[in-house]
Amino acid sequence: MSVEFVDTNVLLYAQEIGAGRKHDKAQELLIRLFAGRTGALSTQVLTEFYAAATKKLLMTSLEAEGVIEDLGHWRIHRPEVADLIRAAHLQRRYRISWWDALIVNSASQLECRILWSEDFNDGQRYGSLTVRNPFG
After folding, report:
1. Residue 33 in contact with residue 14, Cβ under 8 Å?
2. Which phi and psi angles does 125 have, rounded to 5°?
3. Which range of residues forms the domain containing residue 93?
4. In this structure, what CATH number is given to the domain that contains residue 72?
């Protein structure tokens, strides 16, 4: 069973009712991934989600914690030192930001074929990993 990696922005849109079409698309994607048990993310994504949800979306810490708890049932990559080295190589090879390189590394380590994000170029490939924009 192939798992699909979800970036922070998708999680945030799923919580932001005022985001209209993006909210609906993010919700549809997450529902499918929960139902199929094919969702994946990293501790970086969970950390970024909590920070943005409590600051930008004005969720309470308990609300954000509840979302993180639900997502804790997904496959989660927990980076180690070797992952930081791999991410540094990815950053240089693809000339992407450090934070994006960490995301690409985590998705690759979980053997994901798809990375759902609007922060990368739709269709961009990183080895066997392909970026898809759920809002495009």
Report:
1. no
2. -115, 140
3. 4-129
4. 3.40.50.1010
